[in-house]
Amino acid sequence: MSANATVMPPAPVDSEQTPQSRSLAALVDELRGLAAVPSLEKLDSLLEGVQLSEEDLRPYRSFKAGNYARHRVFRNAHVELLVLCWRPGQRTPIHDHNGSHGAVRVCEGVMWETIFEQDAQSQLRYKSARQWLTGGVTGAEVPDIHQLGNPDVSGQDMVTLHLYAPPLGVLNTYKVGSAEVGRYSLDQFIDGAGI
Ligand SMILES: [Fe+2]
Question: Considering the chain, what percentage of its residues have pLDDT values greater than 90?
């Protein structure tokens, strides 16, 4: 480093640097070029390699008082890319993606994920829980019933990047101890009823 190289670029929002990092625009270009619905492994690798700057996130970084806020970045026949913004304590209902694969990258904050399963009578019960820190990427198999949220004890906002294939259609929602399944169409869940 030269002696006068004292001006540092702005710190990225998403601090995990990888050699193959790509910008949000480059990710969208790659999604636009997909010829088929990608596998879950491909979704994971796409999100592992993305490096979001403050500039990338600015158009999508806004929050709401009630539910988390959803912002669509890109959607075509094969994939859907969303940015979600969560205040502490905001979380999804328990849900699955009705056959879509999903991958999530934590861009800012701490995400709690709770996994559920159905017993022999199709009643829902708790299975396990995981925590994801900034830079973490998690993929949801099919079927995968889960709940995501920004824990109320985090003390900070959370921003997450979500990639689904095929694009989200109907979502199924669940309740612990019940076999009842709720179904939400796109226009019903677009603003915080599930992801
Ligand atoms: Fe989900």
Answer: 66
CA of 24 to the centre of ligand 1 (A): 21
Note the pLDDT tens digit of each residue in 109-141.
999 999 999 999 999 999 999 999 999 998 877
CATH 2.120.10.30 fits 21-189, yes or no: no
- What does the domain layout of the chain look like in residue ranges? 21-189
Cβ neighbors of 86 (< 8 A, separation 6 or more) are: 63, 68, 69, 109, 149, 150, 157, 158, 159, 160
**What spacing in Å lies between the alpha carbon of 7 and ligand 1's midpoint?**
41
- pLDDT tier at 26, thresholds 50, 70, 90: very high
Query: CA 85 to CA 65: how far, in whole Å?
Result: 11
Chain-centroid distance of CA 119 in Å reads 27
Q: Please tell me the distance between residue 3's alpha carbon and the centre of ligand 1 in angstroms.
A: 49
β-sheet bridge partners, residue 114: 129, 147
Spell out the residues 6+ positions from residue 159 whose beta carbon is closer than 8 angstroms to its own: 13, 57, 61, 83, 84, 85, 86, 106, 107, 108, 109
